[in-house]
Design a protein that fits this description.
Number of domains: 1
CATH class: Mainly Beta
Largest sheet: 5 strands, antiparallel
Order of helices and strands: EEEEEEEEEEEEEEEEEEEEEEEEEEEEE
Structural class: mainly beta
Mean pLDDT: 92
Distance between the termini: 29 Å
Strand content: 35-45%
CATH architecture: 7 Propeller
CATH superfamily: YVTN repeat-like/Quinoprotein amine dehydrogenase
Amino acid sequence: MAAGTALLQVLAVSLVTLCFVLSANANERKTAIITFDAPGSGTGAFQGTQGLAISPNGTITGVYIDSGSVGHGYVRARDGSFITFDVPGAGPNRGQGESINPAGTIAGLYLDANFVIHGFVRARDGAITTFDAPGAGTAFLQGTLAYNINPAGVIAGNYIDASSVSHDFVRAPNGAITTFDAPGAGTGSGQGTFISTVGGINPAGAISGAYIDASNVNHAFVRAPNGAITTYDVPGAGTGLFQGTYPAFINPAGTVPGEYLDASNVWHGFVRAPNGAITTFDVQGAGTGAFQGTQGTAINPAGTIPGFYIDASSANHGFVRASNGAITTFDAPGAGTGSGQGTVPSSINPAGAIVGYYRDASNVFHGFLLGGE
């Protein structure tokens, strides 16, 4: 997705475990769903807890928004216990865990008192290091967004410069930062190069991302570990304003899932194989109106893709697409059914555990874990 769209998302829920009864109905996923909120989460509209990323051992990170609408980071262990954290010197968003690697190291972002964005890395022992990419702007909602970390501790993200143009960066474990732009990226405000979030860099260092061109059309790219960039568009992607291809995640094999917006502004899912072959898909029940449809959000080594579909009422529902193309759907218990409400998976680990969030009928956000315990 475009950089910064997750900055002020908010969520919340009381800890509860609900088990579904197994069913032969292939259209509805029936397994354990755990809902949760971090201690201190607010319970007002657009407050609460968001599950963003999950490690191979089931540790979850994300953000929670308190009753004063201030954001904080958290770590949720597999046993359900929480550690919350703030980045020293942070402002209205004091820490947002965006990605977590097998060692438990977290990459994320925070806002300072002037609403400038900065990156951070949090070690498993709680030590936090902050950083800014060279060239990052220092005005409102400019700065550095650390969205991804791989097993080697390499961080990938994007930064917004003083002209509000986005560029990508890779930060080595020793702190050295390399910046890059996709060929064809626009240079106007809001244009540029954007990285996929949560899982936008794989263990080998390959990167998935997108760029917005001078006409404000979205295109996708894959950057190889040696820096070579391949751009692509999904067949059927629209070429109008903010239409096009939106990649999300990249697995160890280099397979990329995501979505594209067609000429009628309807979303459709896709998966791109390492050889460049693209398969598109739609979930049964997805709406066909503007900004309705199907979006793939992540992928694990087995090729399982979680995501969500937006129905004809503009409510969100979760789905899981197996590597053979079979799709099951699910809703988190308590998810609302109004426009913009419902269930949104964010990430998946190698074991197939899915983390995400849902928005209830009161527009409070809550984290959920599907199949992880």
